[in-house]
Specification:
15% strand
């Protein structure tokens, strides 16, 4: 049926709707001079008004999501509801413009908009895009997804650190304690191998529900350890035998 066609679902969420909503937020931002943050931007046709608002000094920040940068509407098979999100994944041409805006600093950073759900809610069997839950689960792979896509464009690690750490810290007013590896900053660190490639498979997915459009995607950059405020919260099996953990000697978690 028509409800299985991705292009039909895409047509139910036209860019104009998103552009109008953003225009409304810009008007309110102007009127009340309140801080406004635009979440999961997917419509590149909004970039012009965002740029203008910021040039006028409005306190406006913007994020996009990994799936708008990694996938394109043209490649989404019909019935594959794991790709459904709102706003939707748009055309390759649109998504190229999002990349350019990100590189120019018009878009501040990238956030997953992580939205997990059960496979029943995703309507995987019927493939009905109109009934399926709209949302993409990907938080575990936020870094490798962005790194894989950015690498193809020759974008380096400094930019990735800006988009995943520094700018988000600024949004929540924590730019003096988070988002940098510097003395006096929280020890929020990721240990990873930027060159290692791996395939996303169900056994390695740590989300309770394994539904994700990234299943079977080959990604670059494997996370092997995560340190949150000096405490080791995740360790890949490759690190279990190593000295990992003795480097920073976190209080109460000596290893």
């Amino acid at each position: 049926g028509k409800e299985r066609f991705y292009q039909n679902y895409l047509a139910t969420r036209p860019p104009e709707w998103e552009d109008n909503a953003i225009a409304l937020m810009i008007r309110l931002c102007e009127e009340f001079n309140c801080r406004v943050h635009i979440v999961h931007l997917s419509s590149a046709s909004s970039l012009k008004q965002i740029e203008k608002a910021r040039a006028n000094g409005l306190p406006l920040t913007v994020e996009t999501a990994q799936h708008y940068l990694y996938f394109n509407a043209e490649d989404i098979p019909d019935g594959k509801t794991e790709f459904k999100c709102a706003p939707p994944i748009r055309s390759k041409e649109n998504n190229e413009r999002l990349w350019n805006a990100l590189e120019q600093g018009i878009i501040d950073f990238v956030a997953t908009d992580h939205s997990p759900c059960t496979s029943a809610l995703k309507e995987l069997e019927s493939g009905d895009f109109l009934k399926a839950w709209g949302g993409i689960a990907s938080i575990q792979f936020a870094l490798p997804i962005l790194w894989t896509a950015a690498n193809k464009r020759g974008i380096g690690l400094q930019q990735i650190a800006r988009w995943l750490s520094r700018e988000p810290a600024k949004l929540i007013g924590r730019q003096h304690s988070k988002g940098r590896i510097e003395k006096g900053y929280d020890a929020d660190l990721v240990v990873w191998n930027p060159e290692e490639r791996f395939a996303v498979s169900e056994p390695i997915i740590l989300h309770r529900h394994k539904v994700t459009p990234y299943l079977h995607q080959r990604l670059k950059g494997k996370v092997v350890g995560t340190i949150l405020n000096g405490l080791i919260v995740y360790k890949d099996s490759t690190l279990l035998q190593s000295n990992f953990g003795r480097i920073i000697k976190p209080t109460g978690n000596e290893e």
